Request: fold
Amino acid sequence: MNKYTNFFGVDTAKSEFVTALHGQKTTNSFANAPEGFIAFADQFQEQLEGGLVIIETTGGYEWELIAFLNGRGIAVHRADTVKVKSFIKSLRRFGKTDAIDARGLAMYGYERHSSLTLFQVTEDKQFHLQLLMRRRDELVNMRIQELNRSQGPLSKLLPIASSFSNILAAFDSEIDIVEKAMQVLIESDPIYDEKKKLMLRMPGIGEITANKLLALVPELGTMTRRGIASISGVAPHPYDSGKINGYRRTRGGRPDVKKALFMAAMAACRTKGKLGDYYRKLLERGKKGKVALVALMRKILVILNGQMRNLLTKGGTVLLV
Reply:
């Protein structure tokens, strides 16, 4: 068990971050920039040695601060927003200010530190792959918005028609550039390349889905079937009480992974192979279509997890059975 002498909560925003040291009522505000990082480290140099800093995810505004703290050997936990909000509500603190959030994060670290994992900002291929996939999704979403606008009732007017065409072409070009960069990165690494080839053998999985799973589920092959299903959001959670057996539902997990698995399952359920048969048998047993589809999503993920484990342990190509 890690033992820390102090616990800091840090609420980050675009221009500043607010810190709270557990056990103290006062909070401090610093610029979310290199000079602010240095000021924070200098002011609390003694407390940060052997301390744990809890930083909530805030759309990327926390990355530079985490990298700075990592560089100084300071332990950092990047907290899940949902968990932290639930924890703060359990303390019956219903107000919402940066100072309240920072103190709540400090308390969260103090009470939960034994089970919290440390976060490291890395510059490895996995991190780059995640950034490229995130950028691709952003571009695709913006293209969809522009495409919808281009189909509006006034979109054919001469003053703006060419603008829509030019912007859509620019999005297509940028998406292509990002996808090629992802492909180069994957092919440059023998393990990534083998993992992707393995995924593409799975019915229902194409280039985009394979890239998403590579980028967003690096744990494939390193966890149990239940664990990988849980972090991906396709594990059924019980809802039982006394004599009542409630309806089991999936919840939580990584939304983008669930979307990718949904698209894979939609394609796989129409095939004539084992996955298609599995889906149809569930329907024959009276399962609702949505329930059967989620079960198929979980089936695909569990099969991939097992195959990835074989690939990583044996170091060879594993064929889909």
Residues 316-321 have pLDDT under 50 and may be disordered. The first strand starts at residue 6 and ends at 12.
